[in-house]
Amino acid sequence: MNWEDGKLFLAVAREGKMLTAARKLGLNQATLSRRLSAFEAELQATLLVRGPSGCVLTDDGEALVTKLERAESAMLEGQALFNSTDTRPSGVVRIGAPDGFGVSYLTPRLSPLLDRYPDLRIELVAIPRSFSLSQREADLAIMVGRPEKGRLIARKLTSYSLGLYASKRYLEHHGVPPSEPPFTGHRVIGYVEDLLFSPSLDYASDYFGGTRAQLGISSAIAQMEAVKAGAGIGVLHDYLAVHEPELVRLASPVETRREYWLAYHESQKELRRLKVVSDYITGLVTRDKGWIVDA
């Protein structure tokens, strides 16, 4: 097996799309596709199923990715032995995270990690969506709730709580809403229902009953900004809202708790750069329990 062809296959597996991988590799898409087809013919195996939305790994493809990544990691460690006395991790780690955690919590705390490991590159994708680790949409993902599917290594980071909030300005103009529905005369802010990326985020009915959100927003951060601006009442993360003096937590019989889990594909477990980043994030959250989140 030609290692150069193996690297091309790894690039497509990680990017999930032939065109994106070709651009990163500096190759023509047709050339890359042709070389991968020849690679599959050489191995007498189908590694990828090509489709309009991207490339999906077959079972044989996943198995080969595992072996190639172990070989890649061993080669990088071998280079470090001969090229330098420094065995610091290097390369790219892409982190997928919900926007609330990724933007407000993780982003301001990445600088010490980068200072400590100058050869490490972090790509933080902090958007409200799920990430396929098997398709290499991210190397490491922060998930809402424990992952139930896939060959993943996962650890619980922490629990966190949510509550019903309004701004001081909103309360001055509209009064304090009742603690239970119906919320007649009050505007509700919530998620865009058909864009919920996790069932655990579907907690609007617990608070609002049959009252539908008049303002639906897909981002937790944007929801908080809307509530701060007096656009309505909404369910917000306590660890975010507590730092906003304009926000008031409202009385409600509903108590909501969710969990953040850190996960990565088991084929990546030998990569030192991934271990460094996952341990760093775990250490941050462990240190900050009781402040931004509950144990």
TrEMBL record:
UniProt xrefs under InterPro entries: LysR-type_TF_proteobact-type (IPR058163), LysR_HTH_N (IPR000847), LysR_subst-bd (IPR005119), WH-like_DNA-bd_sf (IPR036388), WH_DNA-bd_sf (IPR036390)
GO terms (BP aspect): DNA-templated transcription
This protein's UniProt keywords: DNA-binding, Transcription, Transcription regulation
GO terms of molecular function: DNA-binding transcription factor activity; sequence-specific DNA binding
Keyword Endoplasmic reticulum listed: no
Stored Pfam families: HTH_1, LysR_substrate
Similarity comment text for this entry: Belongs to the LysR transcriptional regulatory family.
Protein name: Transcriptional regulator, LysR family
The species this protein was found in: Celeribacter marinus
